[in-house]
Specification:
The protein has about 500 residues and is an alpha+beta fold. About 50% of the residues lie in helices and about 15% in strands.
Length: about 500
Amino acid sequence: MNRLGRRVPTRTVLRGLRARLVVGFLVVATISALTTALLTYREARNAILQRSQDIAVNDLRAQVNSLAPELTVPPAQEDLDNFRVQLERSGKSREWDISVHYSGVPDSEEGGLQRSVVIPADLKASVERRHVPAFQRIDRGGDPWLLIGMPVRQSDGEASALSIYAQLPLNAEEANVEALVSAAQRGALPVLILAVIPALLAARGVLRPVRGLRQAAGRIAEGKLDTRLEVKGADELADLSRTFNDMAARLEESMAELRRLEANSRRFAADVSHELRTPLAAMTAVTDVLDEDADSLDPDTASAVRLISQETGKLARMVEDLMEVSRFDAGAAALHLDEVDVAETIRKTLQARAWQKRVAAELPADVRARLDPRRLDVVVANLVGNALHHGGEPVRVLLHAPEPGADRLLIEISDSGPGIDPEVLPHVFERFYKADSARARSEGSGLGLAIAQENVRLHGGTLRAANSPEGGAVFTVELPLRHDERAAGDRPAEDGRDGARPDAGKENDA
């Protein structure tokens, strides 16, 4: 389990950086130990055998130099046999076997090397033809043996016809080598176990700053931009920590500047919208009076009055939409939840705008949910108005009765128009987005769908836009049947200036 109490999968642990560092350290330690052991074994074996070989050659030379002057020249076979026996007796401590050869005297059965050991031709040629000492290690039946060939020289230094051959076992030396190998094998396991300790320490030293970097990155992802790492040392990890701190500092500065600009922008929009409400109210009252008298005016004046009235109404709606958006941006929009009949609420929305004949509604009865009726009215009015203005009639409103045990309800608003361009579809909920730049003077403010989406999100639901296979656009509203009271209460209450009309922002001009 990690420090947060969460269970970490075994596969993840085995593939983690700590495990890879420890395994890598052990692999390096194992390879180093094996390489050292092999080199040590080879050098020790060669040293042991070379030492035994040098001692045997020196002993044989000493004995030959001591006994050869007493040999009769030319010797008889009996003299050679006696000479061989004397050499064997003098070397009893070494357990060697001796063979004596004299050129011109045939070898006797007792004079040859025992156990049917054949003297290699190259060894015999070196001794009898080139008159130089020679030795060779051989394996017989799995046992190591040392063969020594030594020519005997006369007192004047000339080569004689006498040659001495000896064989001696190297079992003792081989046993010493095997004991050395066994000791190395017994010491390998403790060495590998002890190697785990520095491996863990090294992994800890590497992982500690990496773990700190991960935790710091997580805190920054949570929005704690004042997070900094403690820099220790002057290695690559310390450079990484310094770079991270520099990045965090610049990110904090950038975010502070962005938040300042965003707050200024929201405050400007809210202040301008609020300040415009009073003159717009007066202008609306005047245009209402002028509208009533427009029929008594001359045609040109009546047309101008109606245009001013229309544009004043659009400006008033845009101001209300901007104020609504500014409340969402400032987090001041709050829900006033009530247990409502969803079908009846939608029906009232259509009746208030005289859309009953233009909209086909399928509203099952007894669908109740805990919602904010005013905000649901805004959502339905915006979507239906958008379908009427920019889709095609008939427009359909379908309320899906939730299944038993379901916790969400669905409302679909569809039209019979050409649908939404696939390139436009991802942008339909963006503020001030209009699919056709030539429609910049359209009736909509470009905020209606954005306001509808914000109201749905405030309920904890989702709003989706798509094209129906039969043609036309389909907007799907998904809302929870029971909204969390605590979540709704976390938002500050709306101020007393909340004057958004139920039909504020009818379309996004998509």
